[in-house]
Structure formats: C-alpha cells, structure tokens
Amino acid sequence: MNLILLAPEALESDRLARVTDPRRLRHLREVHRARPGDRLTLGIMEGGIGQGELLTLDDHEATFALDALDQPPPPALPVHLVLALPRPRMLARTLEHVTALGVKQITLLHTRRVEKSYWMSPELEPEKIHRHLELGLEQARDTRLPAVTLEKGFRPFLEDRLPGLLAGRRGLLAHPGMAAACPRGIETPTLLLVGPEGGFIPWEVEKLLEAGCEGIHLGPRILRVETAVTALLARLF
Amino acid sequence: MNLILLAPEALESDRLARVTDPRRLRHLREVHRARPGDRLTLGIMEGGIGQGELLTLDDHEATFALDALDQPPPPALPVHLVLALPRPRMLARTLEHVTALGVKQITLLHTRRVEKSYWMSPELEPEKIHRHLELGLEQARDTRLPAVTLEKGFRPFLEDRLPGLLAGRRGLLAHPGMAAACPRGIETPTLLLVGPEGGFIPWEVEKLLEAGCEGIHLGPRILRVETAVTALLARLF
C-alpha cells in the first residue's frame, strides 16, 4: 500500500480524512507501523494525490490532516485488455498486476478453453474484483479505477462488441505461433487480446484475425497468463 | 506442465523413460487426463526436447516410448539477475516467472531493506528452489536449469563479487527515480539489479552506480517485485 486510497465519503473536509476499513487500518499498523505524526501518501478515488499527516490511529479508525491532494495520478496505458477468463487465483493476481501497470479497461471473455466453472467463482463478485483493483491502485499510487466488463459468450463478443472496440484501436491478438513478434514501444490506442491457458482454438484465432486483429507472439516460450500479460504490456508500451 | 522434464536417470534407454515422482504423475492424471497412446512433449534435464507416447500410467509410475529428443531448448536471455531477496511467497512466484522467461543466472542478495527473517525461510532450501525452477522450465518447455546463488552480505557482494559480474556485462540498476528509462530490445550481456520492496537505500544506490551500473526506471508507477522483474525482462530483451 504505497498510497492510501480515500473514498470521497472518507473526506470530512478538504483537510481531514477518516479511514475506517479494517484492511487499511491493519496495514497501517502492521506493515507501515504508522504512528501519529507520520506523513503518508494519500489519494482520492478518481482524484488527486498528495501527502497527509496521521493524527490518530486505533483499532477502529485513522484520521489524517491533509495537504492539498493536487498531484495527478500517473498516466494510464492506451490499452483495452481483453483477457480470456483465467482460473480464479490467477485472475486475482492478474487484475492486480494489470491495474498496477495502468490498464483502465478490462474485458474478461469466455472462450472455448475457459472452464465454465470459472464463471461461478466468488472471485467474480463485484466486491472481490473491486478489491483487487484497489490493491493494484494502492501499489502503483494511482486513483483511477479500471472498468471491468464480463463477456460470457465468445460469439456475441465477436459479432456485437468487437467491431466497436476496434474502431480507433489497433487490435493485437497475442497467440503462440503468430507471424509477427510483439511490437515495442507503441503509443497507439490498442485492443490487446490474450487467450486462456491452452490458448485460443484455431477457429477463434481465425475469426479474430478476420475481424481485423494482427497476430503477435512473444517468442517460443509458453508463459503463464499472468506472466504473459505483464510481459506484453511492458513490451508494447 | 507443457513439458515433462526427465532426470537423466528416468531414461531406461534412448527410447524408454519412466516417471515416478508424485507431482508429475498427479499432473498427468488430473490436469492432462492422459491415457496410454497420448503423445506428450518431453525433455531431458540439460538436454533435448521431443515427443513421446504414454505407454502406461498408474499411481506409481508412467512409462513413455520416446521419439528422438533432439530439439534444442528455447534460447536463454543474456542476463544475470541480481534480486534483493523477496518475501518467501513472492520469491517462489518470481523464480517461476524468471525461469519461464529464460533467465539462467540468479543471485539472491541481502540489502538493508530485506527482512533478515527471509533468509531463514524454508523456501530457500535447495530442494524448494529447485522445484520452483523446474516448474518454470516445465511451463516454458525449457530444460536448462538456472543457477541460483545466495549472497547474504551486501558489502562482500559489492566488493568481492560485483566487479567480476560486471566484466563483459552492462550493469543496469532498476530503481525508481533514476535518470534513464529502461532501454528496449537490447541484446548485450546484462547484469540486472532489482531492489526489495521499499527499494535500495540511497547508500546502496550510490555504491552500485559508483561500481559502474547505469540507473534505469520503469516510469512513475511503483510495482511489486514480481511485476517489475517480468516487466524489466520483457522490455529489455
């Protein structure tokens, strides 16, 4: 937690914030070992970042005297990430990684090789997803929450959603064996599609290429989804 | 497990292998749901890769009829990674990520902000480390095991080991706030140094720069060690 993220209702005034949620209080006590007088970095959800002084800390709340929270959050990556739904534990970690890296639009997609049971996981409950996004923001000192969309059918996604997503974006389909190496250091708005463990099936690859995506690869090594997504984002942007 | 890694003693002959370790047998049964007749990818530790046919599978062993295991493993990255020892769970995952990405030399280093208790973790036992390296190799279909060295003192590392490691290698110190952005797509032999959560202390940064390392950064976002290491390797190579 490199930033204490304040919901707007945590602000008692421009200059006073009150944090009551148990996870952050525990982190302040046990990891930061914070004491009144310590200066810490805070940010308002969807807003600015700055410093504050810890005034009080007990088991139920922490209060902070705030400086102006007027620094902007770090820039976002110009990417909409479409990720075949990973298994639950991998999903949790991947949401944290990509949020910390600055992704702001995430679509979780069903594909042939996604196990249907993954869609029943409690990790997909909005509060669970929100929590992983918050952890990513707090890690990277960001305040802007990514939007996460669930697409439970591949064909409706392909036919109804993909054309709109590709308008004004370069579509990149990351898949082993594609012809082109992943490009480096691009700044173009991008739609990045990443398959599940085991990959997209050939029919899905064919349809995504027909829809206008370019196939790219990361080399001969087969990577876990969380490793591959981080590597793709770091190489692309 | 995209490759079944065979210790040399698993080879009964050029053409017959016997796998007995419980983890791989369980994976074959429960994840691959393998049956006699299935063709799978196998590799010999430090050797070649090829296909084999599963002949028998029960609770105690699997036997394979091997084709020629004559494909080379994928190329290694030209990097020696020096990583401040992360906390145990992060260490486990980071070893898997970097092994899958193709790192072959890893030094785990003590720095001021590494908690001393981490050096007592069972994750540092050679068999535990070996297991994480194997998982990384099996993920990426590689057979060449990274060498892992433990350096429990920063000053002895700095004075006795670093000059040798920098001979013939470009030293890159990844640290927030350094002047240069992480370079992209280099092919030079590299020594990459990555600090702990909380970073190197200023004195350590100063000494590493004095020793000839170049400071590089990944931008304004503070990343977890496992995310940062993957991002650095993907951007550098």
Q: Strand share of the residues of chain A?
A: 25-35%
Number of domains of chain A: 2
Helix content range of the residues of chain A, please?
25-40%
Counted by DSSP, the helix tally of chain A is 6
Largest sheet of chain A: 7 strands, parallel
Poorly predicted spans of chain A? none
The second-level CATH architecture of the largest domain in chain A is: 3-Layer(aba) Sandwich
Shape of chain A from CA axes? elongated
What oligomeric state do the depicted chains represent?
Answer: homodimer
Task: Give short descriptive properties of this protein.
6 helices; homodimer; 6-stranded mixed beta sheet; Ribosomal Protein L25, Chain P; 2 domains; alpha/beta; Alpha/beta knot; 7-stranded parallel beta sheet
Write the SSE topology.
The structure is a homodimer of 237-residue chains.
Chain A: E1 4-6, E2 11-13, E3 16-19, H1 22-30, E4 39-44, E5 49-57, E6 62-66, E7 79-84, H2 88-101, E8 105-109, H3 126-140, E9 147-151, H4 154-166, E10 170-174, E11 180-181, E12 190-194, H5 202-210, E13 214-217, H6 225-236
Parallel strand pairs in A: 1-4, 7-8, 7-12, 8-9, 10-12, 10-13, 11-13
Antiparallel strand pairs in A: 2-3, 3-6, 4-5, 5-6
Helix pairs in contact in A: 2-3, 2-6
Subcellular location (chains A, B): Cytoplasm
Family (chains A, B): Belongs to the RNA methyltransferase RsmE family.
Domain Ribosomal RNA small subunit methyltransferase E methyltransferase (chains A, B): 76-236
